[in-house]
Design goal:
- The protein contains 12 helices and 3 strands.
- A hairpin with a 3-residue loop joins β2 and β3.
- It is mainly alpha-helical and 255 residues long.
- It has 2 domains: 64 residues, Orthogonal Bundle (Arc Repressor Mutant, subunit A), CATH 1.10.10; 168 residues, GntR ligand-binding domain-like (Four Helix Bundle (Hemerythrin (Met), subunit A), Up-down Bundle).
- A 3-stranded antiparallel sheet has the order 1-3-2.
- The radius of gyration is 19 Å and the shape is globular.
Length: 255
């Protein structure tokens, strides 16, 4: 058996797909922003239009962009539709209790922080610092948006250099913005709560930049524990027949 396998160049369409996907995952292309027309994008990337068309089709299929007749192509906003967010189906028809959802997030979020500490590039650090700076500007005006919070987490997952991890975290935060928006609002309404969230994000990034994967994981878990404690009244006991967090984690791990 030959230990060496032929080296094959990656398809151009795959490279276009990955580049645009990563721009969406790390928040450089945000929901509602227009993607350049295929002709322009092909010229800017130095590739053929068929390659761009194939890449755009895959992004549409994943629910990351939508093509609107006569208007152009746009980055999709978070959606609770099952076909746009596969994790939505795991919640069942009655929905997933907030406590189970937050518990479910701990594994992937902690893992993202640990992987980012090992693998993040300087450009990833720059994007994460940009997220913190954007949040600081909001804090000065007495606010903090859950969207900006989410950008930080998805950028962190993108810094793990694992597209599957970034996709999972993005879907989780899309669910935060759709299914749990009202219950999570308490996190962003008080000055003290907003300040603590920002300090926790800063602590996560500091651990990631120090390349301490254990500290990064612990900082992220401490952040999620704060959310759980702050939202405890809204974290109701699961209804009969509703899937447990353990069941959801098992399904996610099998996917």
């Amino acid at each position: 058996m030959d230990l060496y396998k032929p080296v094959r160049p990656k398809k151009i369409a795959d490279q276009v797909f990955e580049q645009v996907r990563d721009l969406i995952f790390n928040g450089q292309l945000k929901p509602g922003e227009q993607v350049p027309p295929q002709r322009e994008l092909a010229a800017r990337l130095g590739v053929s239009r068929p390659s761009v068309r194939e890449a755009m089709g895959r992004l549409v299929h994943l629910g990351l962009i939508s093509q609107q007749q006569g208007q152009g192509t746009f980055v999709c906003a978070p959606s609770s539709e099952t076909e746009r967010n596969p994790l939505r189906a795991l919640a069942g028809t009655q929905g997933l209790p907030l406590g189970d959802f937050l518990e479910m997030c701990s594994g992937p979020e902690g893992g993202s922080a640990a992987l980012a500490a090992r693998r993040a590039h300087e450009e990833d650090f720059a994007l994460l610092e940009q997220s913190l700076a954007d949040m600081e500007r909001q804090l000065k005006h007495g606010s903090l948006s859950p969207q900006e919070d989410g950008f930080f987490h998805v950028r962190l997952a993108s810094a793990a250099q694992n597209p599957g991890q970034a996709s999972l975290i993005k879907h989780l935060h899309d669910l935060r913005l759709t299914d749990f928006k009202e219950k999570l609002a308490k996190l962003y309404t008080g000055r003290d709560s907003r300040a603590q969230l920002h300090a926790q994000h800063r602590a996560v990034l500091a651990a990631v930049k120090s390349r301490d994967h254990n500290a990064a994981r612990e900082a992220m878990l401490a952040h999620l524990d704060f959310e759980m404690a702050r939202l405890r009244p809204a974290c109701q006991t699961p209804q009969a027949g509703s899937p447990s967090a353990a069941q959801i984690r098992r399904l996610v791990s099998l996917g």
